[in-house]
Amino acid sequence: MIRPHVGYAEIRAVADAFAHELDATLEVKPTEHLGFLPGCVAALFGASGTRLGVMGEVHPEVLENHGLRHPASALELSLEKLLRR
Questions:
Q1: Percent helix, strand and coil across the chain, each rounded to 5?
Q2: Which of these, 7, 43, 56, 83, is most buried using a 10 Å CB contact count?
Q3: Cα distance between residue 29 and residue 44, in whole Å
Q4: What does the pLDDT look like over 16-35, one tens digit per residue?
């Protein structure tokens, strides 16, 4: 998701809505990732404790390296693991 005013809250809402539509449970835990802003990134886990992915606000250096002008948030989620429950 990229637009002039986007952040962690928007990508968190997308993850929550996605899980709700699939009747799945996502546990969100703060983590660190070089591609995301510190404090604006979380690991996603399923009900069984399996790590399903990561989400957060993309670090400004990453945006600059790719020639992007607006803030971006990203969500990586393993559908295979999520649906395997």
A1: 30, 35, 35
A2: 56
A3: 7
A4: 999 999 898 899 999 999 99
DSSP reduced 3-state for 57: strand
Q: Residue 61 CB: number of other CB atoms within 10 A?
A: 11
pTM comes to 0.89
Tokens for 50? 């399996």
- pLDDT tens, residue by residue, 31-45: 999 999 999 999 999
Number of residues that make up the chain: 85
Taking the CA atoms of residue 26, residue 58, residue 72 and residue 76 in that order, the dihedral angle to the nearest 10 degrees is -40
Non-local (6+) Cβ contacts of 79 within 8 A are none
Q: Where are the beta strands (DSSP E) in 1-85?
A: 27-30, 36-45, 51-58, 73-77
